[in-house]
Amino acid sequence: MNGLKQPVIFIVLPAYNAAKTLARTLDEIPAEFRKNIILVDDASTDNTADLAREAGLTVFVHPKNRGYGGNQKTCYSEALAAGADLVVMLHPDHQYDAKVIPQMVKPILNGEADAVFGSRMLGGHPLEGGMPWWKFNANVLLTAAANIIFRRYLTEIHSGFRAYSRKYLETVRFMENNNDFIFDTEIIAQGMVNKLTFQEVPITTRYFPEASSISLRRSIIYGLGILAVLFKYWLHHNRLVRFRQFEPGNTR
User: Fold this and answer.
1) Could you give the angle at the alpha carbon of 89 between the alpha carbons of 236 and 45, nearest 5°?
2) Does pLDDT of 58 surpass 80?
3) Which of 28, 43, 51, 202 lies most in the core, judged by the most C-beta atoms within 10 Å?
4) Distance in angstroms (rounded) separating the CA atoms of residues 55 and 26
């Protein structure tokens, strides 16, 4: 991305009932990154899509709810189809500080990484930001398990604030991933098995009533799903069972 052509950067917002927080999220996106913003509305019951159109965003609406992973599939597919060289995924619930976007895209633009993740652990004090203690402990344990299986080190695998190069999204088969929350772990596992590179930047998060969050029950299901993905990765990596999901291939 160091040639004469200016890289095309897209911000994608996977949205569900984000009407109360969308404007605050957009206000924090640095001006130089507001040219190409896609919002995918996952069959919201509020006026998220209308507000997004009024703000000048490119909007896609799912007639039926496809889940968080299904939303991301549309986000990345549409960004790639529109010519994106780099895609930043930002939740429109104002939980993450969008002012960090320049730091997130820099390693990719400099050719130092294929993906960059925002990390609450690098940010310093996730519990002070309001993260529940049980979620913090589960985050640490599941990330440690992932590092053991991947044999590479990340401080957090659960962040919903990420940047991917076009190379990354065209190498992994993200369309074959789960439509629920474990999509985020599957796309990391795909990058790991395809020897793509990762960096992290510190972020802080906000926890408040309008910010999206999953219940303890859903979190337990999510955690078990992550362990299942890690087991599948281990089987594939050790050539005990091959999974097409982890093979390289253009997803478009």
Assistant:
1) 110
2) yes
3) 51
4) 9
